[in-house]
Amino acid sequence: MSGRRVFLFSFLLAGVVLAGLLTVLQLRQADSGPGGGPGDGPTGRPAALARTTAHAKSVTGGATWSSTWSATVPGRGAVPERVLGSGRCADLHAWATSRSATPRGTATVAFTLAAPPDSRVLVRSLRLVEGRAIRAPQGRDVECVGAADPLGGRLDRWGQLSVEHPKPLQLSRHVRPGGVTGGVVQAGTTDCSCEWWIEAEVLEDGVPRTVRIDDGGRPFTLAPPVRRIGTPAEDEGQKYGAADIALVRGRPTRGRASGSLSVSAGRLLSRDSQELWMVADRNVPRVGPLTANMDVPGAVCPRVESALLSAGARPAGYDTFGVEFADTGPSPAAGEGTAEGTVADVRLRVAKVERAGSEPTGYGCYPDAWTRRMNADRESTDVDLRREDSEVPVLTAEPVRLYRDVPGVPASGAMFFGVFATGPTDLVFHFTVEVTVRGAGGQRTRFTLDDAGRPFVLAARPDSRSPEDEEHSYLEIGRRVS
């Protein structure tokens, strides 16, 4: 054999050996799982990649229904008005995440795990894996107070994980072959700007496996907390029902503070307390699929309301508002009242606006077992905006009763009132809530409250007309009817 042929044969042989080594290395790397070793199974050997599949997305809902979600959106561009204000947390979250916003302090992930069609799965634990460091986020801070997410609210809350204290969540969740299980996990940090993901340790028919839960193949991100945007009144007022408040730093927020006292006003989302009535300048196709199954009580009307708010629709006819108070100053022990001798005057500063265009499209939705008495369950009074007055009194010298539920949180309280708006269909009322607080010593503090820097809006209802008369009117049945 010539020297040239020997050289070519040796070269080819070396290539085959090298390819074999690379294959072995790749197989070993696959056995170790993504992002590092997943931990040892019962046999003491590293667990292999699972056939169980995972799907995950970040959501706004936290560990409780009054949780706060905040993030930093890259750049200094303005945040659109359509994603700010009452009932728009889902819109703000979608807008921010589409622009690669980095969650601050905590991040909540809703996920599902799907078992292979031929294997039973036991989910044994979840652990947070810290990835690469990222730059400290720079941009515009946004925040949702009392964020509610339809997806996160329908899955079990599996627990909380921490970057600084990576203790696994021990579980025992069984999944039948081809079945699906899901949950919500909250991850938190105090000082880490980093990537992260979750690894689920599972048994597939007794064989230990590792499932990576991430953002569609990419790690999630997280950075340390930022200074809060909302006021204590907004935080503590969530228990009264003024939830889903989307805010941004750098523009007026709905709450104002003076000394230790803060005051906030908000439209109460309909939920189960009153019928929903809204008008839009165009048909909203998203509502149709939501109302396909009306026998799910408490689920349909809130989703319809969220879809209409996202499309720029306006509440019409009647709405309920709450004024929340919070005092961060010294006060008696939990459960005892504060602000002795303090009273508040509440009035609306109103402007009438005639909308242009064709007849608006009306939408109505009634909760299961709704009655007209439900509209006034919590309201001290109601006012009608038909008058020509630019200022409409609501409450006069109303005692401010504050209570501290648990030690270490602001003492808080609330006042509720209803607002009627009647007139031609092209009439819309814009108003702010003016609150004057008078202390026992005669000192006065005035607060001007709005909807994330904009006036509250309520469209007029034609006389003798109800949501049942609208083209799009729905009733939650709450039970199946054969």
Question: Could you walk me through the main structural features you see in this protein, from its secondary elements to its overall organization?
Answer:
- The chain has 482 residues and is mainly beta.
- It has two domains: 48-222, no CATH class; 252-475, no CATH class.
- It has helices spanning 3-32, 89-98, 232-236, 287-290, 300-310, and strands spanning 48-49, 53-59, 68-74, 85-86, 102-103, 106-114, 121-133, 139-145, 156-162, 169-175, 180-188, 194-204, 207-213, 220-222, 245-248, 256-258, 261-267, 276-280, 314-315, 318-327, 337-338, 343-354, 361-366, 381-384, 391-399, 402-403, 411-420, 427-438, 444-449, 456-459, 472-475.
- The strands form seven sheets. Strands 1, 7, 10, 12, 13 and 14 form a six-stranded mixed beta sheet that branches. A five-stranded antiparallel beta sheet has the order 4-15-8-3-5, with helices on one face. A five-stranded mixed beta sheet has the order 16-17-20-27-24.
- A hairpin with a 5-residue loop joins β28 and β29 (444-449).
Low-confidence stretches: 1-46
Rg calc: 28 Å
Q: Which structural class best describes the helix and strand composition? A: mainly beta
Main beta-sheet annotation = 6 strands, mixed
Helix content: 10-25%
Globally, the shape reads globular
Tally of helical runs: 5
Classify the beta-strand content into a percent band: 35-45%
Total DSSP E strands:
31
Overall tally of structural domains: 2
Our measurement of the CA-to-CA distance between the termini, rounded to an integer number of angstroms, reads: 89 Å
Q: Could you report the average pLDDT, rounded to the nearest whole number?
A: 81
Biased composition (Basic and acidic residues): 462-482
Region (Disordered): 459-482
